[in-house]
């Protein structure tokens, strides 16, 4: 199945993974979809408090952080 979603590795504390698994099952979601749901909610809440995050398509991430990221208030 083709998707436009970015794949990456995520390391979690075992207890958080087990809790996430329970929450996902209760919500009839996969663990990945539950994590995406949580991230969507957190980003939305962050932007409500801090303004929209405007990310340039050429964002570079390096060891020192994120470049080309602007937050509009």
Quickly count the domains.
1
N- and C-termini, Cα separation: 38 Å
Number of strands: 2
State the order of secondary-structure elements, H for helix, E for strand: HHEE
CA gyration radius, whole angstroms:
15 Å
Mean pLDDT: 86
Trace the largest sheet across and list its strands. Answer: 1-2
Structural class: alpha+beta
Largest sheet: 2 strands, antiparallel
Uncertain spans: none
Shape: extended
Determine the strand fraction and express it as a percent band: 25-35%
Helical percentage: 40-55%
Give the helix tally. 2
Structure keywords:
single chain, 73 residues, alpha+beta, two-stranded antiparallel ribbon
Describe this structure as you would to a colleague:
- The chain is α+β, with helices and mostly antiparallel strands.
- The protein has one domain.
- The protein is built from two helices and two strands.
- Strands 1-2 form a two-stranded antiparallel ribbon.
């Amino acid at each position: 199945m083709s998707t436009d979603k970015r794949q990456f590795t995520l390391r979690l504390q075992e207890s958080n993974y087990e809790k996430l698994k329970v929450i996902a099952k209760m919500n009839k979601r996969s663990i990945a979809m539950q994590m995406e749901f949580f991230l969507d909610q957190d980003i939305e809440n962050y932007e409500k408090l801090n303004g929209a995050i405007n990310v340039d398509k050429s964002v570079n991430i390096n060891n020192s952080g994120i470049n080309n990221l602007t937050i509009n208030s």
